[in-house]
Amino acid sequence: MTTVSSAIDRQDPGFIEVDNTVDPVSGRAPLVLGCRDFHDVTHSVCRVNEAPKAPLAWWVAFAISLSLVGFLGVCVLYLILTGVGVWGLNNPVMWAFDITNFVWWVGIGHAGTLISAILFLFRQKWRTGINRFAEAMTIFAVICAGLFPGIHVGRVWFAYWLFPIPNQMDMWPQFRSPLLWDVFAVGTYFTVSLVFWYVGLIPDLATMRDRATGKLRQFAYGFFALGWRGSMRHWHRYEVAYLLLAALATPLVLSVHSVVSFDFAVSQLPGWHTTIFPPYFVAGAIFSGFAMVMTLAVPARELFGLKNIITLRHLDNMNKIILVTGCIVGYAYAMEFFIAWYSGALYEKFAFLNRAFGQYWWAYFIMVGSNVITPQLFWFKAIRTSIPLMFALSIVVNIGMWFERFVIIVSSLANDFLPSSWDAFFPTWVDIGTMLGAIGLFSTLFLLFCRYLPMIAIAEVKAVMPQADPHGQH
Amino acid sequence: MSGHDHHTAAPKIPQSAIVDDGRIATFARAIFAAGVIALGVGLYVGWKQGNPNQFAKIYLVDFMFVLALALGALVFTMIQHLTKAGWSPAVRRVAEAHGANLRWLWVLALPVVWLWWNGRSHDEGHGPGLDLLWPWANLEHLAAHDPAEAELVEKKSAYLNPDFFMIRNLAYFAIWALLANFYFGRSVHQDSTGSEADTKSMRKWAGPAIILFGVTTTFAAFDWAMSLSPAWFSTMFGVYFFCVCCTIGFSAIAVTLLRLKQLGFLNGVVSAEHMHDLGKFIFAFGVVFWAYIAFSQYMLIWYGNIPEETTWFAARQVGAWAWLSAALLFGHFVIPFVFLLSRWVKRWPLLLLIGGVWMMAFGWLDVWYLVVPVVPSDIGTFDTWNAFAAAHADATTGLGNPAIYLILFGMLGLSIGSAAMRLSRVGLTCRRDPRIAESIAFENF
Asked: Which pTM value belongs to this model?
């Protein structure tokens, strides 16, 4: 018999006695700890949303985030009323914080789809513990990303011209421009991610509906649960739809950031025009996405008592992915540098020496230090399983990946072919305010998600428990 | 799992399924002997044709093909250990056996040592040097013949010079032999001991091993293929060659397994489930990832339209080469994409066999495409693409030369013969891998 109180007691960190980061040579380490049965899982997840009051820490974080959103509104309004001159842009450096932030946020969004689609196709069962909020994070990150090109166009009231809309002037966007491809790529990505996330939510929304006590909750969850009853037929169709969506979403993981990389790589600018950009950007995106999942997962599992579902093993695995993608990013940096020398081209060589030793040398060293060097610490299991260290390293990666985009964009633009046109970029308070405001928007949305929707894919986690596999060896 | 870490009982695999009854050994000897003969005849035919450069390129393409096969099989093995895969121990032995050819494939590279040695002597009348293939190996000759290119190439002579080239090659082959030997040897060792220490050791080294593999194959691709056009460069080239290895290697693993099953081996060990997964590997890496990388490299260079980069593709789009480029687009991507997409195709042995052989053939053609075309030295003298294309409309791919296929058959015969001999000696599956029971029982959901 499982009582509510015993399930809650078992959320106590002291309960976790099994070290599931040990990899047995045969058999598999357990992915869910401390839940005796399916009901325990449901309860552990739902009680976060059903608690009458959110924890104090949630309110504090929400207040800070919401203030930042307010500030974002101020910055954007000021920009619209005045013009993009309020940013620190100048003649050679016409892209800076805006596009850096755009690429950074799009990149962060990649972890969700990778976890829900590619890891699904690779049968990585541990993904079930983290996929729901990684997907949510994806959607919020893409919203933040979309903000920047939207306000960067200058005359925001014409932003709809980004889309090829038939009009009486017979004016069309340039179909050969990767900036237009971006509109399609990011738009498709957002749509598919949202559908994927929502389809995954349906069974859990039905659970929330069935557990709801108030009329409003019953109606709201019930409305979005689309009449889910959990019949065999429902599940069968659900599984088919999920597999198909995973297969459709998989190319998107590669395509979106590839198209973003085309924004730069199709040009002739040294430091931008290089063929490795597409896979390099994709690896970097997954890298930064997992770092952001880590940054969110570590406090969330503490705050909401989910350590038995988002176990140390999940974190360990994510750290391994951060290590792998960090190495791929390091490979790309090395290739760029080597080929810049090997090309024998004056401008190529200059672009890379300038990155490392020019006016933005400090940004370059932050980038290499945070993206290539410090992640190497994850070779050591003691570090992969240390909560404070992995949290700190994940933030280092987030910063490093922001600087990667800054270095690519600004250092190449600031010092181009003609020394007389060189300049430097300095951010204004509006640049910085917009950047922080977007972070506020992201965390506001994320905090709302944590409060009102099941943070863990309840049904999927149940399916990877030993009880779900009657023929398994247990 | 916790509470059930009891030793998994070794599954009952009938000996007849995984032990050679003599037919594999016979086949191995026959194909090896045929390979020796074909290689000998091919070399003779090629030599007699009196075009040393063409002959050397044919040899290089065929060599890179069998090398890519072994490298693809090696990286497959390493990925399985890195990810601690449970589905693959049943099929891993075949990959290990192909990969283990890296122990001796350096022998086929020995003619390069001869070229290098020739190039060192400055006497009159010495044989051809490394510049038979790689123009950077003789800067004086290059300067006389194409001064603009020589000026560029001279800037990279700290990297592109014969001695350093040889040292690098020594490192590549030593590292590959070491890795292949380790992953084959340890796995075979486990067959007799059943020791978990073997699995742990193979897993532990998988990460560093893949990094070593990545660095060596990248630079090997630069050295052998990219530096054939020494002025040209692409940061993607190493990744492209990785795709070549995956295409050929993964297909070869699938084809070998299907053939073994046709002969009646591996019943109750390797099922349609495993073949389905191998089909996915071919589809994902050989078809889709290859197309992604090839498209990205091509599109970015086409779009940037910088002459020093586009010349490489220009040489591949004149005359008959245009047809070959199109053949790759359709044969390496469009057709196999549609063909291998469906689940039932990957689970139907004959169809997957056709798909695997097809992909190996186009993998070979891809190497031909990378290695053989030469950027015409007069390319800078044309004002328009059309004028250039018209002037070189008679460019041929040279695919009609019988020496190509004799040498290819020869090298493939040696490779397959050695791998088959190995399988005959050590058995067809990793029978005491701790996850073999899990692997045999594995099902796609």
From this structure: 0.94
